[in-house]
Amino acid sequence: MLLFTANVHAHPQDEDIILDIEEGQLKLQSSVIDSEYQAALKRKRQRKLASMSWQQKFSLYVKAGFEHIIPKGLDHILFILGLFFSSLVLASLLWQVTAFTLAHSITLGVASLGIVAVPAHIVEPLIALSIVWIAVENCIFKQASKWRSLVVFGFGLLHGLGFAAVLSEYGLPKNDLIPSLLAFNIGVELGQISIILAAFVLTYFIQKKVWYRRWVQIPVSIFIAAVGVFWFIERTVL
Amino acid sequence: MKIINTQFKTSLLALSVVAGLGACSKQADTEQNQSSTPSSVQSEQSSAATEVSNPFFTPYKTDFEIPPFSRIKDEHYMPAFVKGMDEHLAEIDAIVKNPEPATFANTVEELERTGKLLVKVQRVFFNLAGSNTNPQLQELQRELSPLLSAHYDKVSLNEDLFKRIETVYQVRDTLSLTAEQTKFLEDTRKGFVRSGALLTEEQKAEITKVNSQLSELTTEYGQNLLAETNGFELILDKADLAGLSDGIIQAAANSAKQKMDGAESEEDKAKYKDKYVFTPHRSSMYPFLTESSRRDLREKLYNAYIYRGDNNNENDNKIVAAKIAQLRAQRAKIMGYETHAHFVLEERMVKTPEGVYDLLMQLWNPALNRAKQEVADMQAVVDAEGHDFTIAAWDWWQYAEKVRKAKYDLDEASLKPYLSLDNVLKGVFDTSNKLWGLTFTELHDIDVYHPDARVWEVKDKDGSHLGVFIGDYFTRSNKRGGAWMSSFKGQSNLDKVERPVVVNVCNFPGPVGDAPALLSFENVTTLFHEFGHALHGLLTNTTYQSMSGTSGPRDFTEFPAQIMEHWASEPEILKTFATHYETGEAIPDALIAKLLKASKFNQGFSNTEYLAASLLDMDWHTLTADDELQDTAKFEKASMEKIGLIGEISPRYRSTYFSHIFAGGYASGYYSYVHSAVLDSDGFAAFKETGNVFDPELAQKLRTHIYEKGSTEEAMTLYKKFRGREPQIEALLKVRGLDGSTD
Question: How far is CA B525 from the centre of its chain?
């Protein structure tokens, strides 16, 4: 079949030479091709989103929010663990988590809606520092200080900006923006709660031991602080 | 740019300004860098592993048999081509060696079943080499070109195969074949005959010799022209930029910077430092000619363009062109034809050179008269500006633009918000829905070759599956310029019902910022045009794939595409899809009126330059074998004087840079677009005559006789079945404003 020419084009391939002459040859540059590809990928997601019902979008964004904690959000996981290892008093932990959640919901919202914009090269190192701060505090104070919730609230604002950055890379649908934002946030909360639950289950039998603080709480906090310092350096210097 | 491409657009290498600017603002010479498009990420595999996992070697097993793009790696192509060619030859050998006497079924129909693997890989490869290429694919293209042409020669020059076909052909009247089968048999045989099957051994040897000389000369012609085009640059200082807009200046600065980065020596680098570079590529030249107020520089760049291949240097094409024409005439004589044009046109809808000349000359005077009026209009502007010069060829773009602004006052920017890509797609889908009840469902989860390529399932009125339509609309740096239609899977009813996978590739500017992608009206007609080709590929319903879709003669196959453009500019339809992307408000009537009026703008120029080139093409290819080798400069001069071309216009392509006919496949075929335009204007007039542009009865005829039939009947027969009579030229003259009605 198709014996004499490959009859698959309405405008055949022999036009290639004509195009090269009249228009210039293609200049292939991998960085340009890559960034075009990424932009196209985002458009593709937007188109897919636009075609979904709000329920579909809602579950998609819950999932996305969750994934941005587990497994993608290692820095947020460490921050949450930092909170967990600050106190054995449930009420104190709850206050901190609530403050954190409230704060990052606020900044995630306002940043996603385009009301504020803070560049990533400022936010990202600060997030790393917030992890260090929390972990160091854990080592210094046996019980979380009274104003700790306030500090955590401030850090939450930062982390919200970080969530907003990943979310904007992921893309938000133009329709149903608020429900999707809410869904993403719910996903993030579910991720956080899972972390705390897991940590609680793992440490359940050793929490009351006398050596808990010395051999668990402090070493883990030191480790978290060390990772935070490393990230800070990585995000500023490297 | 706009000036040049108002009507012949895509097919004549439409170059949108934006796409063009993109092309000249890209960094030079990075061909050796490997592209890193995620879809073509290389995986290191041993050849044994490739053999096992090569997606071409097994059925696709995907939805609608769309190629599994993400599984196809660059290293899969060559083995698939090699195996495909081997299999093809083996299958043909089996037909030839069949001990049974030749029958329609065991020879002609069986031949249709051969080469499936080759075609399968060919479709994917050549599509992606055009729309999503990388250095590996470009290299493969160079390697494959001689291999494939040698392969297809082996098939078309297979004497034993031809003997069996001829045996069947001789008894065709006794076989009670269907009309489609008869045409298939005739076309198949004719393909062999036109490759020289009926010639003596001596003649065949001569043809082979001529063909190889021609192939060398056409390559040389193209190389010379490439060197000439790339060899000229207008390097300007900041002081030379008068009149140019910011975007154009920026592009020229980028192009200088790239040249500087690419330069080897310090001396070369210094040449481009803080300069602005313009080249004779259309994307660079037309904006300059339109905007620059430096008449001397316009002249310089314009002349650089029109003297390409005519500079009496080592890249001169004058003798090459004359030799090509002479060899073609000689080949035609051996084949038993008077001239090359006779040989080519036998296969076209307009059967003879006389027919082509007749058509072109009917349009010539109306176009030329209109062009002379346009010159007068421009001269009036020159005079009014207080200048003391006569309009010359290099002034045309600039003053035509001034006339356009004064007369038509159409601001493209005010139009664009009504023409978002999504709205225009809705418009074209709605049009085919109103005509034939087709529906389009976008599929978001298909594995496709680039995230900008969108996929729709196309269903018929009764809900049955018709095919898959892929639309790849935005320009990108690894996509060839222009716009085209192609397919990833053909249509056939031979052994089972196979429905096609069709693609449209365009070069529209992508979205900027938060706004959706907004098109120019020229983009809109391009979209409708290519969609017309796509419908030809989607609605087709023939037994044999070789005869399906767009397989017909070139002066006919533009018709189903071009007729779609008419619906794009119907006010009634425009109002339904052209709604403002922010406010949702429909396009105002006043804007439509301006738009339609502006469509007649500069038609004198674009028709005259196109017709002059078409006539030049015909003159070259109606030389006989006995004519002596022509002096190209004299020949062209005489050819243009004969028709009275005015000095303010050059033929769209002059003999030394007419790559379509001397390097490409358009010899004595450049007229095709205007022939198809006669058909589309006349054809659409039929709808207008009914008073309903969606007239159901006529729409059905258009579908049955044009879009479904492929090349299963003579093109003129098909047209007459649709229209009820032969085509007439009047509608075209009216559409283009060449009937004296344009003020």
Answer: 14
* CA-based nearest residue to B4, from B602, B568, B651: B602
Q: Given this model, what pLDDT does residue B133 score?
A: 93
8 Å CB contact between B663 and B617: no
In the CATH scheme, what is the code of domain B2-227?
Answer: 1.10.1370.40
User: pLDDT at position A172, please?
Assistant: 79
Q: Which of residues 247-286 of B touch A (CB under 8 A)?
A: 279, 281-283
Residues 17-46 on A with a CB inside 8 Å of B are: 17-24, 26-30, 32-34, 36-37, 39-41, 43-44
Amino acid at B44: E
Q: Which helix (H) or strand (E) holds B503?
A: strand B501-508
Q: Assign B245 a pLDDT band (cuts: 50, 70, 90).
A: very high
Q: Are residues A34 and A138 in the same domain?
A: no
pTM for this entry: 0.84
Please tell me what DSSP assigns to residue B40: G
Which domain range does residue A11 map to? 1-51
Angle at B314 between CA B311 and CA B316, to 5 degrees: 45
Which residue from A66, A58, A64 is spatially nearest to A194, judged by alpha carbons?
A: A66
Interface A-B, measured as beta-carbon pairs within 8 A, has a size of: 190
Task: Identify the residue among B126, B221, B494, B536 best suited for mutation to test binding to A, counting A beta carbons within 10 A and taking the highest.
Answer: B126
B553-592 residues touching A, CB cutoff 8 A: 557, 561
Yes or no: say if B543 and B177 are a contact pair by the CB < 8 Å rule.
no
SS3 per-residue string spanning B90-143:
HHHHHHHCCCCCCCHHHHHHHHHCCCHHHHHHHHHHHHHHHHCCCHHHHHHHHH
Q: Which of B21, B26, B469 to mutate to test the interface with A (most CBs of A within 10 A)?
A: B26
**Number of domains chain A is built from:** 2
- Predicted local confidence at residue B647, as pLDDT: 95
- pLDDT under 50 in chain A at which residues? 1-13
Please give the pLDDT value at position B216: 94
